[in-house]
Give the backbone structure.
Amino acid sequence: MIRMHPPNVWRAMARPGYLLSAWPWRSAGYLLTGVVTGVVVLVGIVTSAAAGAVLAPALVGLPLLLGTALAGIPVAALERLRLRLVDPGPAPDPHESPGEPGLRAWLSTRLRERATWREFGHALLFAGVLWPVDALALAFFLLGPSTVVATPLVVATAGEAKVLKVWLVSGWPAAFGFAVLGLALLVLGAYLLGVAAGARAGLARLLVASREADLGARVAELARSRVRLVDAFEAERRRIERDLHDGAQQRLVALTMTLGLARLDAPPGPLADQLDKAHAQAGTALAELRELIHGIHPRVLADYGLEAAVADAADRSAVPVDVGLELPGRLPQAVEAAAYFVVCEALANVGRHSGASRAEVSGGHRDGRLVLRIRDDGCGGARAGEGSGLTGLADRVSVLDGRLSLSSPPGGPTLLCVEIPCDPAS
Amino acid sequence: MTLRVDRPLRVVLAEDSVLLRDGLVGLLGRCGHEVVAAVGDAEALVTAVGEHDPDVVVTDVRMPPGFQDEGLHAAVRLRGERPALPVLVLSQYVQRRYAAELLDSGDGTGVGYLLKDRVGQVEEFIEALGEVADGGTVVDPEVVRQLLRRRRDPLERLTPREREVLALIAEGRSNSSIARELVVSEAAVGKHVSGILTKLDLPPADGTHRRVLAVLAYLRA
């Protein structure tokens, strides 16, 4: 997915034309409002904390202290607004909405949230450190160079000027020289302002903007791409099955037919024997190919659906299997395929490991879910861990928002249960 | 060459793979049969049967346009229209479900269901074709093998109504007679009968009527 990045001060500085754009002004505005806000926050926090502490014994102070702790929330909200000046990308509110209305619910939600305390930290940092830094940046990168540029003006009105309170200037050439130097400093300052504002905004974003929203969007996209991947995988299996069926299988049948005829025509002797052998080998190849194709994607599943395909899998099982499966009709292809392969894998495991004498596949479609249970009377102890085909199948089921659960205590019985939400296909 | 048959048959062949169709036409011709029409899809099969009124139909299961089980459905449909028409269905793989559907069409006689592989066993294939044309029933050994793997005690699985019907079959009653006796429609009886045959895992042996086998299962139980 290509993501369009909204412009921000960093990207603006990387481009020509930064000096003539609004970005230096936006940076200055961001830092200036930062200073103002910071001072207000400092005064507010100190006052309410002090008042709260003093009044705490009288109990009225406690709500004040609580209010102080929650002060980070409005400060952060304001900071998210200010961010738009230099970094207009989305800065989502990190707070959850309280489950129910009322002050109590709101308070208990906020006090339990990590974001609240992160924002409180931000407010303290803002009041103690950040706004003075903003002020210094403004002084050095904007005010200082500006006064240097204004040297000729000062000379014109006062007769002489003390540039940056260091150099005394009274002559015009020197005054204009300083003005030119001031302009150069102003240009440099514009970039440094951008850097200061950008860095400051980056820090603020880290502290007050939700990171989960971004993460959530990525998770959603990943989930969608996983579904697409499984669909593509399934379509590919069907294509391979069709290609093998229409190609290799037909040719092999034709080959056995030709060999069969040739064998009849050949006079008894070594040639007939060789033809016999070739005919038998072609027949074996054909049988193997048929099994292979069946394993890739069985026709009965495509043609008749899950119920018939499960009955077919039960027929093929080495262990006798009782099938009690009733479905309202066809289900979505992906669901049928996933459920079918779970049943096949489970029955294969029953045959291989369980020592069971009997297995049972039961289930149906209830309350918008397909539910299948595969039970055997074997020795149990099955695990869905490493190397088990069940792990891959569990992934496949989870793509469909389904669940696969295995219960297999030592001594048995083993019960595998798969649930997939779905509606009957129309 | 021992392959020539005593009774030449007029065959309508449906097979979408040109390679196999040509091969089968050649094979049947070699044996003395006449392929009166060789078509590539199910619609053409139905048309060709109407046109040529053949002795026997040989059809693939999977054909255009859907490449699913069009051939099988065409065969079932043809037998619905002409119950006496012998049909031999070839399939790349065997499914009990397909076999059941086919054997339940008409009265279960004059049908065959074989793996396509068997055409390579030329003599057996030609023999099976003759059997089907004579009204016999031929089921692929692979289907039988699948059926035998299923659990036993078959009568346990019959509903009380199905057991009643089976008992009447054992008396040699026809479907219409059973319908009258039980005061149900003949279609309902047909449904019970196919239910019984399916539940009893009855692969009719060559030339033996399935109802007889059902009765045997009933008597042995």
Q: What stands out?
A: Chain B has two domains: 10-144, 150-220. Chain B has ten helices and six strands. Residues 150-220 of chain B form a domain with the Arc Repressor Mutant, subunit A fold (CATH 1.10.10.10).
